[in-house]
Write a structure and sequence with these properties.
The chain is an alpha+beta fold. Helices cover 52% and strands 18% of the residues. It has one domain. The strands form three sheets. An eight-stranded mixed beta sheet has the order 8-5-9-3-1-4-11-12. A two-stranded antiparallel ribbon has the order 2-10. The chain is globular, with a radius of gyration of 20 Å.
């Protein structure tokens, strides 16, 4: 099954649903929802949240491995096969992830991310938010967006694929703003614009983005991190040399210094976000 063709085939349905929803709203509310959709269309990027070690590896070696590549690279130096390594790493998610991926053509090249308009991203997957440049979207026709996390929303016990929900909740890049507006209409009408980035993408929910092909350093628009975390790391890295830290904490500080240097070397901006 071609996931990206499913997304393309859902364009008209998304347009009709978005138009119908706006028609039920008061003019001011319809305008507000339209402004949110425009913001997503103009500023929406794909982000991938990472833990510190993953970001450091990416900046050092220049590419981000999807999970199948990662497992194969570890298996090359391990007595365990790649599937067993993935199963141990993913624990309870392994069966559903492999099942979901095997339903679609070329899924062993899928990279998973989230639709982002300025926040810290899906922080459950890591405190560092890697934002991909807009050229990634324009240069790659094979991009799809799902209303929710693919495993939580579209794979049921068995496992079984909820095909009807997936067909309804999928969008191509050109219609991602409609999918996001349909999902978050009530929150967009209830909360101020400053909250919109964290409503769209946060630790517990996000619009999932799926792309194919590798992600390299040239694809990075920026890296984001919480300003409070930055200030704490910076204090121990460059200001406070007297305090005693546990070995694990000192290791994190040293990684932070290396990340700053690599970002500077490769001209990648670091954006500090005040976490709401």
């Amino acid at each position: 099954m071609d996931l990206f063709q499913l997304a393309a085939d859902n364009r008209l349905h998304l347009e009709e649903r978005f138009t119908a929803m706006k028609a039920t709203l008061a003019p001011a509310e319809a305008d507000r929802l339209g402004r949110f959709a425009t913001m997503v269309d103009e500023f929406g990027r794909i982000s991938i949240n990472m833990r510190q070690t993953t970001l450091l590896s990416f900046l050092t070696f220049g590419s981000h491995q999807h999970m199948y590549e990662w497992a194969r690279s570890r298996a090359a130096h391990s007595s365990m096969p790649a599937d067993a390594i993935m199963k141990e790493r993913m624990k309870g998610f392994y069966e559903h992830r492999v099942f979901f991926d095997t339903q679609f053509d070329g899924a062993n090249t899928f990279q998973y991310g989230a639709l982002n308009i300025g926040g810290l991203g899906a922080t459950a997957y890591g405190d560092f938010c890697l934002v991909l440049d807009d050229h990634v979207s324009s240069d790659r026709p094979r991009i799809a967006y799902l209303r929710s996390d693919s495993l939580k929303a579209y794979v049921g016990p068995g496992p079984i694929l909820d095909q009807d929900s997936l067909n309804r909740d999928i969008a191509p890049h050109s219609h991602r703003q409609m999918l996001a507006a349909l999902k978050h209409s009530s929150e967009i009408l209830a909360f101020p614009q400053v909250r919109w980035p964290s409503i769209l993408c946060n630790a517990s929910q996000y619009v999932e983005a799926i792309i194919t092909g590798g992600v390299t350093r040239v694809d990075i628009e920026a890296v984001r991190m919480d300003k409070l975390d930055y200030d704490l790391f910076f204090e121990f890295a460059f200001q406070d040399f007297r305090s005693k830290l546990a070995d694990a904490d000192r290791f994190r500080i040293d990684m932070f210094v290396l990340i700053l240097q690599l970002l500077e070397d490769h001209h990648v901006p670091l954006e500090l976000i005040n976490h709401a």
